[in-house]
Each structure stands twice: as C-alpha cells, then as structure tokens.
Amino acid sequence: MRAQFVLSEIWIGLRRNLTMTIAVIITVAISLALFGAGMLINQQVSEMRGFWNDRLSITVYLCTDTSQSNHCVENGPATDEDRAAIQADLEGMTQVSEVTYVTQAEAWKDFQERFSNQDALVEAAQEGDIPDNFRVKLADPEQYDAVQSAVENRAGVDSISNDQDVLDQFFALLDGLKWAALTVALVQLAAAALLIGNTIRLSAYSRRRETGIMRLVGASNFYIQLPFLLEGAISGLIGGIFAGGFIFATKFFLLDKIQTWFRFDVELSMGAVFYVIGMSIILGVLLCTIASFLTLRRYLRV
Amino acid sequence: MIHFDNVTKVYPTQKRPALDGVSIDVDKGEFVFLVGPSGSGKSTFLRLVLKEEKPTKGRVHVAGKDLARLSNWKVPHLRRRIGCVFQDFRLLPNKNVFENVAFALEVIGKPRRFIRKVVPEVVELVGLEGKSTRMPDELSGGEQQRVAIARAFVNRPQILLADEPTGNIDPATSIGIMKVLDRINRTGTTVVMATHDAAIVDSMRKRVIELEDGEVVRDQSRGVYGQAY
Questions:
Q1: Domain that holds residue A215
Q2: Where does the ABC3 transporter permease C-terminal domain start and stop, copy by copy (chain A) (predicted)?
Q3: A291 pairs with which residues across the strands?
C-alpha cells in the first residue's frame, strides 16, 4: 500500500469536487452539532433529575392567623390537634419517607439564608410571613399525587407546594428542546448521507478513466475504493470537528446560562462534553464512510 | 495458457449468442491473431479471458485457473497476469509517459524503488527512450499506443491481449507497433491480438483464428487474413 499515492488521489478528489465537498462538510457539521446538542441536553436533564430526585419534597403549609385563603378563613388557624393528626397521617403513608415539622421561626431563618444575597427580599419579609409547615420527603418522587390528595383541603392545611410541578415544566421544556434538536439532526443526517452519496458519485464519474485502468491492471477492489471511502471519511471528520466547536458553544452559551439562571448545582463535566463531541465525530465519519461505500457499490464497477 | 472448452456466451438483451460453442487452445508463448468481422465475437472472447463476463455455458481456463471457480476478490490477481491494449489507448491525459506507465505498478502497491527501475526499461523496450516526460497530447498516435503497450507490459504479464491496437494508426506506424508486440512475444509472453488489419496478419505469418457469428470458422497456424484454401 502506497500511502502517498492514496493521499494524493484523495486530495485530487476533494479538490475536484470542492463545492460539493464544502456542502457536505457544512451539512454534516450542522447535523452533528444538533445531534450533539441533543445529547448534551439529554445528559444535563438526566443529571439534574438525579440531583433533584434526592431533594424533592412536598411542603404542606398550615393555616395561621394571617392566612388569606378561604379555606383557612373558614376553619381558622391550625390547632395543635390538627397538626398532630396531619403529622400522624403523613407518617403513616408508605409513600412518605420523612416528615419534618418546620416552625415559623425555622422557616423564617431558612428563608433568610436562602435569599441572603437578595437583601431587599429579606428586608421586605418578616418572621410569621411564612407559615409553619411540614416538609415531606417522598420515597418515590413520582408518587406525590397520593400524598397531596391525602392532606389537601383538610382542616388546618392552607396550601401544598410541590417542587415536582415546577421541575416537570422545566424538564418538559428541555425534553422538547432535546427532541426538536434530535429530529432536525436526523433529517439533516439523512440529507448529509444523500449529499455524500452524490459527491462520491460525481467523484467516481470524474475519475472513471483512472478507475477503469486500475481495474484493468489488477488493482484490488479495496485499493480502487479506498480513495473514495477516505474522501467521504475526511469530509465527515472535518464536519465533525466543526460540530465539536458548535457543541462547545452550546455548553458554554446555553447550558451554563441555564444553570446560572436556575441556580442549579449540577454542571456537566468537561468529560461529558468531550464524550458527546467524540461520539458526534465518530458518527460523522461512520456515516460518511458507509454512505460512500454504498454509493460505490452502485456506481463503481469493480 | 488460454483454454476455452465449448464456450457459449449469450448476452441477456440478445437472442443470438455472441460466442457459440467455441473451443480454443492457446499455448504459452504463442502469438495469435483473432480475426473476423465486427460482431463476430472477438471482443467477447477477450472479455471472457479477463473475467469481465461469465460464460453462459462451457469452461474458461486462463493461466492454469478455472475462471468459474475463481472467486471475485481474486479476479484482480488474475488481471495482473494479463496485460491489455486497446484501440483508443486509454492513457491518463494529465500524466506524462513515465507516470502513465508507473500508474499500473503504483495501483498494485509496488514499491517506488522498483518502479523507478523497471519503468525506464519498459519505456525503452517500446522505443520511447528520451520521451518519458512527454504528455500524451504531445505524442503521435503510434507513440501513444507504445505507451499503452508499455503500461500493459510493465508488470511482465504472462498474457498480452490487444483489441485492435492498430485500429487508429496509419499502416506505416502500425508496422512499428507490431514489431513491439513481436518483441514482447519473444520474451515468452503469450499475445492474443484481435484485428481487422489484413496486411498485418498476412505479413506476420502467425496463427490465425477466424470467428464468424460467434463460431470458429478457421484455426490455422502461420495463416493469413483471408481464406487461404
């Protein structure tokens, strides 16, 4: 095998079809970038899910003197008996793993700590604004419905807030984004495969003299096909490298921003990003090589 | 060297066979003219030898190999033992004489040192010494055909197939081409040449196989082009 000969053949092939090669590289880069972005979002979501599932809780707020809701106004503030009954019921449920009673003072302190960087908010509130509540941890975060309906509308219960509702909306948004990216990626990848097929076909046509002579003097099929296959593989590789840049950009300009806005403590590691980039490049090279191979089987008689 | 045993070839789109029960034996080192009108089956014969086509019936043996049993991936190795020359030269226009001949060796993976050594020898054998760096369009038809012969012969094949090699060349130049082919034949290479050129066949006095409508109508050693009986 003469590497120099093969390389010069590839170079000639790529240059002769320069415009087609550029089109292939762009299409591959865009499709792989979308594919990689979809994968990144997917990883981010699953990491965030894991993170939040450990921390998800339902908060059952009790009625106080200052509660505004109709339900509290009718029934008056929660009595000690109400509180004991609610606590006993919650603790008796199999779906519940832990129940903590938070007094108004504790809730106020917690609030101050949480928003310590937003003085205005802390100053505007005061102790007593946040009613005492039960913080309920669930054995399985998916089962919050049962717990919620068990305590809803009971005497002394003001409102129930559920982290899951908020998160579900957020995850649904990210999931939608992921599927949109993957769908467009799939369509683009199909277009890329067809485009590569066409490029290789043109390349095979413009070099039919050479390949004809190669066949005649007994060059092996592999040797005849190799320049075309590598031509496809190199286009895929270059497209993949560009896609790698896009994927980096997605990480820094989209996912990291989302983390900052939503104050999540999960950050995708660089390892995960490089994994996605690596997968995208491998996919690009494989796709282009396979598309070239299938085209050659039809258009290059050996 | 080439052995056809009752070979029939029918192309899918045609009813009439291109070759019809042909049995031919060509021995090592022979020089054979294949004559006959267009469509008589000369080209089909050459294509069968190269395993570009498969016979509909009968067996083809080339260089001791039964082509029916030769798997597809071994066909390139068969073709390395067979050189081919055509009426239309089939040179690469963007490569010079040396590069055109070297191409045949490059694509079968021969080392560069070997190529540098043997290509000039063959270029000299076909009578083109000093013209290694000429491009094909700077050469006459006869010279271009010499380049094609050099390319076909550079890997020292056991068989040289020539499909009307003088078809595009004037008679005076053709004699030179025939001398080159004769020289190659004297190195022990079997030469099979399909041709219409009566003058050449008559002057060489070699074995002549005449085909007509896919059948062998004459097989004569030291023959001439026309009927000699």
A1: 2-52+168-299
A2: 183-301
A3: none
> Do A84 and A133 reside in the same domain of the chain?
yes
From B209, B170, B221, select the one nearest B35 (Cα to Cα).
Answer: B209
Residues of chain A found within 8 Å of residue B151, distances taken between Cβ atoms: 213, 217
A123-133, pLDDT tens digit by residue?
777 777 778 88
Amino acid present at B13:
T
- pLDDT (0 to 100) of residue B229: 45
Given an 8 Å threshold on Cβ–Cβ distance, is B108 in contact with A1?
no
Q: What pLDDT digit, counting tens, does each position of A69-116 carry?
A: 777 777 777 788 888 888 888 888 877 778 888 888 888 887 777 777
Do the chains contact at B108 and A209, CB–CB below 8 Å? no
Amino acid identity at A130: I
Q: Are residues A42 and A190 in the same domain?
A: yes
- The amino acid that residue A90 corresponds to is L
Number of A–B residue contacts, CB under 8 Å: 57
Nearest to A213 among B78, B81, B90 (CB): B90
Which tokens is A204 given? 């095979």
Residue type, B140: S
A121: domain CATH number is 3.30.70.3040
pLDDT band at A250 (very low <50, low <70, confident <90, very high): confident
Chain B interface includes A18 (CB < 8 A): no
Q: How far apart are CA B3 and CA B23, in angstroms?
A: 7
The number of folded domains in chain A is: 2
Task: Kindly determine whether residue A2 and residue B76, on different chains, have CB atoms separated by under 8 Å.
Answer: no
Backbone φ and ψ for A3, nearest 5 degrees, come out as -60, -40
pLDDT of residue A164 exceeding 50: yes
Interface touch B79/A216, C-beta < 8 Å? yes
Q: Which residue of B has its CA nearest to A301?
A: B52
Q: Which of A163, A182, A200 is the last residue of a domain?
A: A163
CB contact under 8 A, B151 and A217: yes
**Angstrom distances, CA of residue A226 to CA of A10, B76, B132:** 9, 15, 29
Report the mean per-residue pLDDT for chain A.
82
Listed ranges A69-73, A161-165, B6-10; the one with the highest mean pLDDT: B6-10
Last residue of a domain, one of A163, A197, A220: A163
Same domain (yes/no): A153, A277: no
Decide: A179 and A45 in contact? Cβ < 8 Å: no
Same domain for A195 and A119: no
Mention every residue, 6+ apart, whose C-beta is less than 8 A from residue A270.
none
**Which of A 163-222 lie inside 8 A of B, CB atoms?**
209-210, 212-221
Same domain, A180 and A46: yes
pLDDT of A264 > 70? The answer is no
